[in-house]
Amino acid sequence: MTAQPAPQPGAPARPRKPQTSLQVLRTERISADMVRIHAGGPEFEAFADRYAAKDATDQYIKLWFVDPALGVQLPVDVAALKDELTAQGRTEQLPVSRTYTVRRVDRGTGELAIDFVVHGDEGLAGPWAAAAQPGDWLMFTGPGGAYAPSPEADWYLLAGDESALPAIGAAVDALAPEATGHAFIEVDSAADVQDLGGPAGLQLHWLFRHGTPAGTTTLLREAVAGLDWPQGRVQAFVHGEREMVKSLRDVLFVEHGLDRKQVSISGYWALGRAEDAFQAEKRTEIGQIIPAGYPA
């Protein structure tokens, strides 16, 4: 990771991002490989205000996980804990973060919903979500994110794998009843299909890997490239595994000549990378979805 410059003497400290601490209210298995966590508590309304102020459907948060060996009683001020551990030279025990899309904020019920892909014991957040019980603490910072379906678009293109499914679902929820378009979603099998609802004019295309590992297929690129492109101005939302997303660049920007302002495109994860390594690589050539000067 590139070293950050030391703050200049007298320079104001960077303001800390607000932390929210909520408790798990209930969980539900919404498909074969996805668990939805519903959380709430006294800090929900303050977070809901920040969420509403951004007016975006792909808003994400940074979930923080504290090493159980520390014996810390939750919830805890994560930033203060990081400072304390760093001062003590215990950087190997620093809290770690995982990035997740907010699936829904329901002020009527006072609930935040987050969807987790679960593959057995793989990863950190997935196993936590699979085992979560009411009362467990969810500590996070955020939200960030900017995409929302533009009312000026003639039609919409949504494409991604499981990691993008919560954001695609949130976008579908926000579409106008008369909206039209196509959503391409790659999952393992029919057991992973979700009822997303949405306007009648939005066609959902579920692409099945049938056991092939996520991040190793060309299903999404082939499906989007083979689309009979509708007339009018499109707004595209393309997110998921990094190399898969890169494979769609030429389809969007070269074959169809889309303007950057028409496209929200990014990698949510990278095959063979833990999140810390994936985030660090965003500063390097391999991590750049749209290189400088693209398309040449």
Automatic annotation (TrEMBL):
Q: Where is this region: Disordered?
A: 1-21
PROSITE patterns associated with the record: FAD_FR
Q: Which CDD domains match?
A: siderophore_interacting (cd06193)
Stretches assigned to the FAD-binding FR-type domain: 17-150
Q: Where is the composition biased (Pro residues)?
A: 1-12
Which InterPro entries has this protein been placed in? Answer: FAD-bd_FR_type, FNR_nucleotide-bd, Riboflavin_synthase-like_b-brl, SIP_FAD-bd, SIP_fam, SIP_rossman_dom
A Pfam family reported for this protein in Swiss-Prot or TrEMBL: SIP
Q: Report the superkingdom from the record.
A: Bacteria
> What is this protein's name?
Siderophore-interacting protein
Q: Provide the species name.
A: Arthrobacter hankyongi
